[in-house]
Amino acid sequence: MSSSVRLCEVGPRDGLQNEPETLSVAQRAAFITALAQAGHKHIECGAFVRAASIPQMADTAAVLAALPPLPGVALTALVPNLEGMEAALAAGCKSVAVFTATSESFSRKNTNANVAESMQRIEQVAARCRSSGTQLRGYVSTVLHCPLEGRTDPARAVAIAERLRALGCAEISFGETTGKATPAEVRVLCQLIQAAGLMDCSALHFHDTFGMGIANALVAYEAGARSFDSSAGGLGGCPNAPGAAGNVATEDLLHLFAGLGVSTGVDLALQVRAGQVVAAALGRALPGRAWRALIQSPR
Ligand code: MG
């Protein structure tokens, strides 16, 4: 088995989008730069969405333009539709992500489209990716639980992932949206991903809402997962509850994998520094815990 994992740092998009503050272009660029300096090779950098609906992601094109050259770093931007895709291309984006869900209620609430309609939008974006040579990543949300519908069927998530793969997604990220799932459920999900032959192109995206993020990542790793999404300091909590636990913290994942002897390519001390960059910009501590422990204890 491979003794390394791939990480996708989602703090600058999934993290900041779900925090109440809106950072400036310079602050977001400084955060992304610090993450690249920590060793990240895949960073979700922003989204080409309407600024009126998600002000935290406004001016993603300007953020990209403000970055220094980051050789070898894939910068992925979320695009909800063809309009966002064209904006991403105009900004020089080489990698985009699309979003769907297993839950009809969640899809309608988040994207104003049912799952079938969201797949149609994705087909349009995927065609444009092919014609422009752009890398495509797919997100499936609510893979085990939905905040609106409760427990969901992981087989449905895998079926959607198969369609995303067929549309050309290089990687599909399975979003455990609520953070409610426990390791036993994650094990079942990973078995289904393996059975479908999708593990090599799948990432797992956990949340720490119920304190299960690292436990779930460990179980997924043991079940063969080698790609994980995480967020600096656990950024990405509930917009209405500053400080609430959100995405699994990158620092916690780095600590877990270091202990297992598994390479991530990311330096924990520099990851902590990137967390400090964004914490200073937000003017408050991040939800995650490990980064605080590290700077308080001798190394
Ligand atoms: Mg998330």
Tell me about this structure.
48% of the residues are buried. The chain starts with 5 loop residues before the first strand and ends with a helix. Helices cover 44% and strands 15% of the residues. The chain has one domain: Aldolase class I (TIM Barrel, Alpha-Beta Barrel). It is built from 12 helices and 10 strands. The model has no long low-confidence stretch (mean pLDDT 93). Helix 2 packs antiparallel against helix 11, helix 8 packs parallel to helix 9 and helix 11 crosses helix 12. The longest helix is centred in the middle third of the chain and has 18 residues. The radius of gyration is 18 Å and the shape is globular. It has 299 residues and is an alpha/beta fold. Strands 1-10-9-8-5-4-3-2 form an 8-stranded parallel β-sheet. The structure holds magnesium ion. Magnesium ion binds next to loops.
